[in-house]
Amino acid sequence: MANDKQPTDKQIMEAAGRARQHAHAPYSNYSVGAALVDERGQIHIGCNVENETYPLGTCAEAGAIAAMVVAGGTRIQTIVVAGGFDDLATCTPCGGCRQKIAEFADANTRILMIDETGDWATYSIDALLPASFHMPG
Ligand code: THU
């Protein structure tokens, strides 16, 4: 349930930007920050953490989701993804992260990322991951 102290989109974007500054991305040089707001209005952040053994790297969204879960959050109201090389560029969540977001998203979850004009675009999980997997029954 939402509380009356919802962070603004600007605050969530700033949190994603701050998280991005901590990205460990020495192999791709592509730094990503993610900030999400859970059902209680709490912000959780993550950044990509690469590894010398490349496949072991983790995405920013995965870090933010893990932070939400360990803090007791269960649903994503809004998630902002901010990535790029030096400057911010369009960074759409990878396929794996779309599935990870879907686990905690519903039709009202807002997924924000910068677009090619530099503005922020909002997507639903159904737009990013149509016909997604759900266990039958
Ligand atoms: N990356 C993310 O953190 N999130 C995404 O959704 C897309 C990609 C990271 C993984 C890797 O560290 C770098 O960006 C380049 O792929």
How would you characterize the overall build of this protein?
The protein has four helices and five strands. The protein is globular, with a radius of gyration of 14 Å. The chain has a single domain, classed as Cytidine Deaminase, domain 2 (3-Layer(aba) Sandwich), CATH 3.40.140.10. It has 137 residues and is an alpha+beta fold. The chain has a five-stranded mixed β-sheet.
Tags for this model:
Cytidine Deaminase, domain 2, single chain, binds tetrahydrodeoxyuridine, alpha+beta, 4 helices
Quick structural gist:
With 137 residues, the protein is an alpha+beta fold.
CATH secondary-structure class: Alpha Beta
Low-confidence stretches: none
The CATH topology: Cytidine Deaminase, domain 2
Main beta sheet: 5 strands, mixed
Strand content: 15-25%
Number of helices: 4
**H/E element string?**
HEEHEHEEH
Distinct small molecules: tetrahydrodeoxyuridine
Tell how many strands the DSSP assignment holds. Answer: 5
Total tally of structural domains: 1
Radius of gyration: 14 Å
Strand order of the largest sheet: 2-1-3-4-5
Query: So, CATH architecture?
Result: 3-Layer(aba) Sandwich
> CATH H-level name... which superfamily?
Cytidine Deaminase, domain 2
- Give the helix level as a range of percent: 25-40%
Shape: globular
How many angstroms does the end-to-end distance come to? 26 Å
Task: Give the assembly state of these chains.
Answer: single chain
Indicate the mean pLDDT.
Answer: 95
| Class per helix and strand makeup | alpha+beta
